[in-house]
Amino acid sequence: MSDFDRRSVLKAGLGGAALLAGPGVVPVRAAEWTNKPEPNASIRVLRWKQFIQAEYDKFAEQTKKFAETTGVKVKLEAESWDDIRPKAAVAANVGAGPDLIIGTLDDAHKFPEKLIDVTDVANYLGAKYGGWYPVAEKYGKKGNSWIAIPQGATGGCMNYRISHMKAAGFEEFPKDLPGFLKLCQNLKKNNTPAGFALGHATGDANGWVHWLLWAHGGKLVNEKNEVVIESPETIAALEYVKQLYPTFIPGVLSWNDSNNNKAYLSGELSLTLNGISIWTVGKNSPDPKQQEIAKDTDHAALPIGPVGKPTEQQNIVIAYGYKYSKYPNAVKEFLRFMWEKENYDAWEVASNGYVAPPLPAYNDNPVWTSDPKITPFRDCLKRCLDNGYAGDLGYASAAVMGDFVLVDMFAEAATGSATPKEAAARAAERAKRYYQV
Fold first, then answer.
1. Is 261 helix (H, G, I), strand (E, B) or coil?
2. What pTM does this model have?
């Protein structure tokens, strides 16, 4: 968030009990950890499917290291984000399935009563490493207890072709919405278009439509969880997208989270919202064309709207364990082990900065300054709002996100299948099914 400061981190993770260390210094405090896995424990871990192979390989390597160190057997599985969501809900409902899931956003808030209390893990890590980002704490906590441990965010930034941006009349990436629209319009004129997912893409589509709504001052709900999407600010955002959509490559209405990656690396796109995976895959590709595209690629934070501050929505990834697990201590030990800085840092390096860290103390990882193209991803949690904004995270916010209510609203307005007023009214009607039950 724009008002993020050292004090807010302390409040989130330490209650103001200590000061963060200076730049480049990891604030390590004495933190007691007494948990021990159950004898002969065996756990099943389901996590999100990789976009960068080296990231998954390092995670699997460290999982093996955990098993060898603790004696806990671990079965590691991976599924797409869209497949994890229903499986997580089914596991909660039937009381069987993976012991631990690393999923997305506020899914854990759909069934908090079914989850292992991981407050001790969160407090241990927060105390040892200087406190959590406030937005990470909001995703991890329900009331005064932690129901999930944030892994970070598969941070989204603007991915753009440097030469195409300059050919469109811009020496640097625009920092405001009028400049952003002009860039997209000029890219279209030059036959080097932009493309943003408007299909049911968990990360990419939700990311940019929430940003654009919030950037104009619109929001789905207010602080009392009342649906307020039918507002002048929302209409302004939808009028803006009506101008923006014609600059997009055809087909975005059916895109999932992988389509823009493929289109960008095939040379069809010059601008999209994505994590660092496009650039990483391109520069490591054996294909010379993809290598050239990666060399011509840079990244930027999302432009600021009329509200005058960052309003990004990032794809937060969170880990949560189920109470039905026979080995809850083993689940907590796995979380503690994998989140220890030495292990997290090694995983971050392998992923090339694909996940923005949930603990600011992890920002000193040299991967973030190893290349200036990586650095914009480091502060994603500093710039973002939670997807329940401006209300609470819970069943309603998770359900609205899972139902792609705002994505569909923007798609309807962008394509002209509904007027902005009609699209906002339909979104309000759908949202009230969840917020007024």
1. helix
2. 0.87
